[in-house]
């Protein structure tokens, strides 16, 4: 059965800390691994990873995929209170002719001033 | 990035009534849209995949007669919650793959409260 497991489920840090969020996956006909940030409303897209070992960066956020070990990490450096959110990881696979995302439960990050 | 809108953003209805939620792709064509439900402090749960011009594909455990999905055009999908009950109260989110894009874009969500 397809599944995506994120860890930790929740995390509390102080501003300026660096955090690493983990995502392991088992997805049939795997296509890509996606990270999203969810605050009070719908998730917003962060990264899509398709190849192993190639780091994607956006400001203080970066992410990398290991397709051999079936996991990805999301790093946030110099955290700010605005980084407080739930970070969702999803594995994209194919279900017949349809593309499908398998979602993890998310990591709830709280950054305290 | 691609823009997906949802309407309404918030709706309160009485038990037994039906509610329609619209999902529109504003600047791209979406042959496939997805409907999710999210309960407080839980992850997204895929309800169904909405395909333009054909029947939606429902996930196991989701009643297709209760959650009616229509995807009549390349920019619009609707979800109708029929005979809503308080346990249907949730956050409903739609998303779509943008044309020529690999990532999924989400609408802002609709908060449904059934009293």
Please, could you describe this protein's structure?
- The N and C termini of chain A lie far apart (41 Å).
- In chain A, strands 2, 4, 5, 9, 10 and 11 form a 6-stranded mixed beta sheet that branches. Chain A has a 5-stranded antiparallel beta sheet with strand order 1-3-8-7-6, with no helix packed on it.
- Chain A has strands at residues 3-7, 10-14, 19-26, 32-38, 44-49, 56-58, 61-66, 71-76, 85-95, 98-103, 107-112.
- In chain A, strand 7 and strand 8 form a beta hairpin.
- The radius of gyration of chain A is 14 Å and the shape is globular.
- Chain A has 113 residues and is mainly β.
- The model of chain A has no long low-confidence stretch (mean pLDDT 92).
- Chain B has 115 residues and is mostly beta strands.
- Chain B has strands at 4-7, 10-13, 19-25, 32-38, 45-51, 57-58, 67-73, 76-81, 90-97, 104-106, 110-114.
- In chain B, strand 4 and strand 5 form a beta hairpin.
- The termini of chain B are far apart.
- Chains A and B meet through strand 4, strand 5 and strand 10 of A and strand 5, strand 9 and strand 10 of B.
Offer a quick outline of the entry.
Chain A has 113 residues and is mainly beta. Chain A has no helices and eleven strands. Chain A is globular, with a radius of gyration of 14 Å.
Strand content of chain B: over 45%
* Helix content percent band of chain B: under 10%
Radius of gyration of chain B, in Å, reads: 13 Å
Helix content of chain A: under 10%
End-to-end separation of chain A = 41 Å
Q: Characterize the overall form of chain B.
A: globular
What summary fits the major beta sheet of chain B? 7 strands, mixed
Main sheet: strands, sense, barrel of chain A: 6 strands, mixed
Q: Quote the average pLDDT of chain A.
A: 92
According to DSSP, the number of beta strands of chain B is 11
Distance between the termini of chain B: 37 Å
Low-confidence stretches of chain A: none
Q: Given the structure, what is the number of helices of chain A?
A: 0
Work out the largest interface and the residue count of each chain: A-B, 21 and 22 residues
